[in-house]
Amino acid sequence: MTTSTRTAPSSSAASTTRPSVGGRQPSEQAIDAAIDSATRLLRLPTLRDRYAEIADAASREQLSYRAFLSELLLAECDDREQRRAGRRVHEAGFPRPKTLADFDFTANTAINPATINTLAGCGWVSKGQSLCLIGDSGTGKSHLLIGLGTAAAQAGHKVRYVLAAKLVNELIEAADERQLSRTITRYGRVELLCLDELGYMGLDKRGSELLFQVLTEREEKTAIAIASNDSFSGWTKTFTEPRLCAAIVDRLTFGGNIIETGTSSYRLAHARSQRTRNA
Questions:
Q1: What is the residue-wise DSSP string for 147-200?
Q2: Taking the domains of the chain in order of start, what are their residue ranges?
Q3: Distance between CA atoms of 120 and 99, rounded to whole angstroms?
Q4: What is the model's pTM?
């Protein structure tokens, strides 16, 4: 006769002890210990932190067991999505936190709040369209660029922010190290590329061509948003080769969104106002 052997429980399973013993009502301390142990094992930090609060609310509102369970699980799901959104915003590489809620539309009446609100819905990102923010320094271009990029990251899109000059330098280094294709592909996979300060520095022929390759890789597939202090007609100072300049402008403006932020610097006006008040 063969004797069956019983498999010993794993250490993980053994570490979670059921509070009920012999059908008796377990103590509150035993229940709390069991919940803490199980939620740590299952990696449910929100449920561990909030179950008592939600249980008390369910008791007051006389919710059913199923309704109570749904409240617990939804709280865990909501918190996980918030943490994921926070990670996407962090990974985007924004230089400073800026949100659309913080933007002062009264300081620059050239910008239509309804237009920005529509863009915040991120439909243009899903469609792989472009956005060009054109205006003088201090008119809110970078704030809007970062704010819209943040909104896209919070909505679930993979976003990357980079200064135009920094991107060109990265591409040149990648080309010298024979890593250009990999770098261009990496930028091509980002759902929204936020390119800031385009036009602040002139680019030589090589830099212009490398940047053009990134734009071509993304064309009509993934979205790009740029902020520039120069009008399109002035981009010949940045892209000194006329045909290449025309091709870049064509790729950024075809089927895209263009917002002109004007010429009146909010930062300059704010500084003057502060000096006047302090005088």
A1: HHHHHHHHTT--EEEEEHHHHHHHHHHHHHTT-HHHHHHHHHH-SEEEEEEETS
A2: 25-89, 93-274
A3: 10
A4: 0.74
